[in-house]
Design a protein that fits this description.
This protein is of the alpha+beta class and about 220 residues long. The protein is built from 7 helices and 14 strands. The longest helix is centred in the middle third of the chain and has 13 residues. It starts with 18 loop residues before the first strand and ends with a helix. About 30% of the residues are buried.
């Protein structure tokens, strides 16, 4: 799939990535592994929570609900895995762009840019149709707050407003701890053989692997 909005990185640009990752987490009593399998079975990542600078104040909070991804280079994924979980679903950037995903904007607290955005929010008032509500889910304001400091630019976050649907061929690869690779492959192969769910033949990687090992598997 080609995109006029995204050019692939050069092979030696190890600080960049052609992929984005959605890490799963515990939800309603299920662990991240089971939640990842549920997402793969249903082929949709649900936008359950609002995000952005108006996640609590937009007149229609459903417009702020989004699915989150990270653009961290693959050999640095352990940084985010240690904050989120060891389980993730990986997509190519161009696929996510064509599904209306986009990198978020980090507009620093108390600076000119966030002030300008807040002026637009104020002018929108309670007008649910105002275009600013299509922008605000993609804006975060890092800074020091009374409840604590928020500085997470290193996550290189992307978001997509609303549920994120995909097919088996859209998944580039999966992130699973190495000691569970065989069990996970067996589970997915059994689901296909028994017609219990979609089949995924993509590679598996471990978030703690080094770059050469990841490149070897993806090659």
């Amino acid at each position: 799939m080609s995109s006029p909005f995204f050019g692939e990185n050069e092979p030696d640009w190890t600080d960049m990535s052609d992929y984005v990752v959605h890490f799963t987490k515990p939800y309603k009593g299920k662990n991240p592994y089971d939640n990842m399998l549920a997402i793969l079975a249903n082929q949709v990542i649900r936008a359950r929570n609002p995000f952005g600078i108006c996640r609590n104040t937009a007149p229609d909070l459903s417009t702020q609900k989004a699915v989150c991804f990270s653009e961290i280079p693959l050999h640095k994924l352990r940084r985010l895995a240690e904050k989120r979980s060891e389980y993730g679903i990986v997509f190519r950037k161009d696929f996510v762009i064509h599904r209306h995903g986009n990198p978020i904007l980090y507009a620093y607290k108390d600076r000119e840019l966030i002030a300008a955005i807040k002026e637009m929010v104020a002018s929108a008032g309670n007008d649910k149709s105002h275009p600013v509500w299509r922008l605000t889910p993609f804006v975060d304001a890092p800074g020091a707050y009374p409840t604590g400091s928020y500085f997470f630019e290193w996550e290189r976050e992307w978001r997509k407003v609303g549920d994120f649907k995909f097919s088996t061929d859209d998944v580039a690869f999966l992130i699973i701890p190495e000691h569970l690779h065989a069990a996970a492959k067996g589970f997915l192969e059994n689901a296909r053989a028994e017609h219990l769910g979609p089949a995924y033949d993509c590679p598996f990687i471990d978030a703690h692997w080094k770059r050469k090992q990841i490149e070897g598997v993806l090659a």
